Structure formats: structure tokens, C-alpha cells
């Protein structure tokens, strides 16, 4: 039979090609997933909707075994499968956490548990889960300095802040790690190294789900809301997907319910939140294609560069913006400049005679210099929006 050459045949071939491009390769036969499924079954979880698979573009994720309808619960993970601060308190680390002063943060407790269990290797009851976790992460905090230097200036600054924050987190935790020496035959300095803690920090930061817990005296006042959810955390992000995710107090399970239908053998996505690509890269180590929340961050240097150099009030204006936290997170998205960016520009563009009398009330119509208008038009994403 001759190959169809008509319009209908071409459309059919394109659809078939697109289907194969997005279809995942089943990975449920791999030893690490066989062990994980057995481990989950022992903890009263069995999934009939999803299987692990590898997808072009997103990598490892979960694929639908059957068609999923809107509003269906696609995964219901029992509390016994979740790794929380309760898990840490019930473990061999619990006594050390409880007596430490000042109290540990919930984040440090989870990170310490992850490092200790990974070090335990085959002796860890959490090994099946630890085996499928990434060995390394692509968040900017993990990148070499020469790679970070290639990032756009606003992202570069955030990446450096993130690295400093994690380094301080490690330095401030060393005394607690030293207190754990009786639990190990090796020196704790070799077990709880910076690289080990960085891996644990990224694991919690990129994979944790939100589960609110009550305040306990053995932990600091920071919110205790992070829980690691084995298997469920294989679900990848898509900005256009809507799901309902929460811990069900009646069933004592963390449940995800679809907001739309999904065909058989398609990748099942969840949405991590309405994040722009800078936030996604910083927090999760990836960017999303065709992200409706994508935006360009406008730095203070760009704003000031195209404003009149004769403005004697500029330093005072910048100071006011910094005092009110308005000098950062200035963005320009698909719908034009953000409210924060517009407000900042309104203040910066006030004439000398307007500034003393008008503050803190800003003019309703900003007057933008031509240079700034051109620069914004070149570097930012426009959608029929005019300055």
C-alpha cells in the first residue's frame, strides 16, 4: 500500500510523531524502582495510576497507566511514607535534637537525617528512597563560580546570596554535628561535610511538599512545613497544569487531585507554583519552556543609567526605595511592567519641584526618559504594552 500523501495523512503523521516525542519510556523494571515499590507497599502504599518513566525534555517523571479524568485522585501517599521532623525525632537522632540549645531549625533536622541515612548505606531503612534521589543538583548554589558569572546580573546576585546563605547554614551547624560523634565510628567532619549538607539542603529545597505541623519546643520558631514524599516527588513541573495537593487529615495521606484530564501513557505533571524562570532555576535547578510567568528582572543600574544625571535627589530616592524594599524584584513580563517596577519608576522620575511635596504620594502617570524607554524595549518582553 502506498504511503498516504494527502492532507489528512500528513496531519495524522504529525500527530503520531508528536505523540512519540512526548511519550515516555517505562522505567518500572529497573532495580531501584522495583525496590522502591516494594518499600512503599510495605508502608501501605500501592499505586494503580502511575509508573516511573523517562521523557524527552523533562527526564525522569511519572507516566499515566490509564486515562485520568478531571478531579481524580492520582496519588495518595500514606503518612508512614513521608519523611518529616517526626521521622527525625523518632530516630536515633531524636535525643540529640531534643537536648540541643538553641533549638535546631526543622530544615537542619531534616538535612542531618538525610546525610546520616545516606552515610548508613545498606543499613538505612530509607535506602530504597535514597537510591532514586539525584546524586547532584543543578541549582546555581551547586554551580562553579565561573558558570555563575555567566548568568544575568540579577540572577547572578541571587545565586551568590544563595551560596552565602548555605555556607552560613553549614558553618552554624558544625557544633551540632560534633555533638553527634558518639553515633559514628568515623569522624563526623568527614560525614557532615559541606558537600554532603549541600546535597541534603538541595534535596529538601527542591523536592519537599507542604505539610503543616504544630510548633514544638525542640525546634526553632521557623515554620515546620517541609516533608519529603517518596515516589510522589518524581512528578515534574508544568506551569500550565492545575492540581490540588494537600495532606488529608481524615485518610492521613498526602493526596494530589488532577485539575484536568490526562491520556494514557502521557507524562503526569503538577505545578510547583506560578514561578518565573529565575525562581525556578534558583529553587529547583531548571527553567520551563513556554512559561507564561516568564519575565525579565530590571536592575537598579539599568534604571539609574537612563535617568538624568543632574537629578540631585537621586540618592535620596534610591534610599527611600531600599527602605521600603522596592529596589529588588522589579520585573517586566508578558503583560508589561510589574506594579513594583512602575511604582519605582514613578518615584525615580519625579521632578525636583515635585519630590519634596509629593512624597509619599506618587504621580499617577510616570514620565519616562527616551533612553530608558529604548533600553526597556530592547531588554524586556513586550505584549502590545507601551510606556
From TrEMBL:
Residues 48-273 form the SET domain. One of its GO terms (molecular function) is protein-lysine N-methyltransferase activity. It holds the Pfam family Rubis-subs-bind. InterPro entries: Rubisco_LSMT_subst-bd, SET_dom, SET_dom_sf, SET_MeTrfase, SETD3_SETD6_MTase, SETD4_SET. CDD domains: SET_SETD4 (cd19177). This is SET domain-containing protein 4 isoform X5. It comes from Pteropus vampyrus. The lineage of its organism: Eukaryota, Metazoa, Chordata, Craniata, Vertebrata.
